[in-house]
Amino acid sequence: MAVVRTRGAGVLAVAVAVFGMTLIGPSVPDDTPRLVPSLPPGAPGRIVPDRVMSWNICNPCKQGDIDRAREIATHAPQVVGLQEACVRDVERMRDHLRNLYGLKYHVAYGPVLRHRGRCGGMPWRPGGFGQAILSAAPITDRVLVEYPDGGSEDRGYLAVTTRVGGRPLRVFTTHLAQRSQAAVREGQVRVLAAAVAGHRRAVVLGDFNAVPDAAELAPMWAASADADPGCRPPATGACAPTTDWSSKFDYVFLRGVTARGHRVHPTPYSDHDLVTADLAPG
What we know:
Layout: H1 7-24, E1 48-56, H2 65-75, E2 77-86, H3 87-101, E3 106-114, H4 116-119, E4 121-122, E5 125-126, E6 128-135, E7 140-146, E8 156-164, E9 167-175, H5 182-197, E10 202-207, H6 218-223, E11 225-226, E12 250-255, E13 259-265, E14 274-279
Parallel strand pairs: 1-2, 9-10
Antiparallel strand pairs: 1-14, 2-6, 3-6, 4-5, 7-8, 8-9, 10-12, 11-12, 13-14
């Protein structure tokens, strides 16, 4: 069958293509097929059963999800709490972790904002932006809570139950209001700390946008302890910074569990570093 092309049809095709490109949105990374980035020497190569990780992956930063997956695979935690996460990005990261590195994760999504500028998507169906939890063990009892006051942008926490080290554990991940909004964070922490206090064993992973001795974090310190043993308020300079501006904003708070190791891992793929903790058995 002959295909007849007219000038009008050509213009329409170009317009459709351009429109389709604009729908992708600025935060969707370029995951064009390329060489699979290998893991560095010493990478575990399989899930580390007691390891948890918190990472604000940065949005919009236009980083490839293959690179983000490699960063996670380098440490291979049992549980990962992500902030500033678009649903589609996390879907790709999960697939890359499985297909490229053999690491299989269950995922719970916690979008608190639908925004095309953040996550792309069509105008009538923008992408979901917020938190996500990856777990090597199955996930149950998912709860997504939006804070009554998000500040300059909707914020909330995501909580699930999974197993770490063979035992049930309640896992939270959150992203609190921006740095200049301490009064808003104070209300958010009250909501979060009350939820955490309702569990005997819990881990809270997140970007709190506040240094350890910030007054608004007091309820979290009352309900839990940081996995970093040298980091307690008042700040003594022993807290390892977790951001490009040399502040500790990212935490692994523990309730009813302890850590036998804690590390901050610098990364070129976000303005926040990865924070891991290896939980003690029992």
